Sequence to fold (344 residues):
Amino acid sequence: MIYINLLLIFIFLIFIHELGHYFSARIFKARVTDFSIGFGKPILQYKDKNNTNWKLSIIPLGGYVKIKGLESIFQNNNSTDFDIDSFQYLKFYQKIIVLLAGSFFNIISAWLCLFIILFFFGISSYSPEIGNVLKDSPAERNEIKIGDTILKINDENIYQFSDIPRYINKQKNIKLEILRNNEIITKEIELDYNNNLGKYIIGISSTSEPTIKKYLLIQSFYQSIIFIPNYYYLTFNYLIKSIQNNTIVNEISGPIGIVKMADQLMLDKIKGILFLFIMISLFVGLFNLLPIPLLDGGHIVYFTLRYFFSDTLPHLVTRIYLTIGLFILSFLFIFVTLNDIFYK
Fold:
C-alpha cells in the first residue's frame, strides 16, 4: 500500500503541474491537443468535446501538455503555426503565463495541503518552559534551570518556545526574565556563537509535550504562507553547505531514492502522504523554473530572447538550445538514478 500511495503522489503531482499549463492555455483560447500523464503507450485515453486527448500512459515518470503550435516554434520558421488557436498566436505575456502556470499550480497545491494539515490536524506549539539545559552553555553558566518559564527577552513578551530564537536574533547580549517558583528573575546573559548554525545560542530546549490547537483559520493561513519562502531559504542554505562540505552526493535523491526510503516516510498515514506531496511539489515547482533549456524556466528565457529579437532567432540557436537542454537533463537523470542505485 505504501508504494501504491507513492505512485499516486507522483501521478497527482504530474497532473497538477500539467493542469496548470492546460488551464492557462485554455483561458487564452489556445488549443490543447494532448494531456498525458506518463510517457509511452497509453493505458487509458479519452477525447473530450474540445478535442483534447486525455491519456494515462505506461511510464509514469513525467507528463506533458501538447499545445497547438508550441512544437513548431522549435522547427524552421517556415513551418511555424500562426493559427488563432495556436501557442504562437499568443501575446508574449500570455506565453510566459502559460509556462509559469505549471509551477504556480504545484506551489499553490502544496500551500493548500499545508493549510489543510495545520487547520484540521492542528498547530503544534511548545510553551516557553525550559525542558533541558545544555552542558557548558550560557544558560547553565547563568544558572537557568529546567522548569523555568521564559517571560521576556529584551522586554519582548514570549508566548511560546518558537518566539525565543526570533527575539534573540543576532544579539550577543540579552536580558532575560524568567518565572521560577512564582518569582520573576531577571538575568543579563552573554550568548555563545555557533558556527554551524551561524547564530548566537543560549543552550536550552523545550519540553517534550506540545500543545496542539485545531481549526485556527488565521494562524493556519499565516503559517502555511510563511512556510514556503522559509522552506526554499533553508533548502538553499542546506544545499550550499552540502556543496561546501562535499556531501552533496549523499543528499540528492531521485524517484528511485524516494522509493527505497518509502517505508520511512509514513506513507500509510494521510498526514505522511500530504507532507511528502508538499515537499516534492515545492521542489518540482521551483526546479521547473530553473533556466535550463527544455524546462519551463528555460522556455521562458528562450521566448524572452525571441521576443527581443522579434522572433528572428536563427534556427541554429534553437538547435543549440535543444541540444544543451537534452544533454543537461539526460546527465541529471543518469547521475541521480545511479546515485540512488549505488549510494542510497
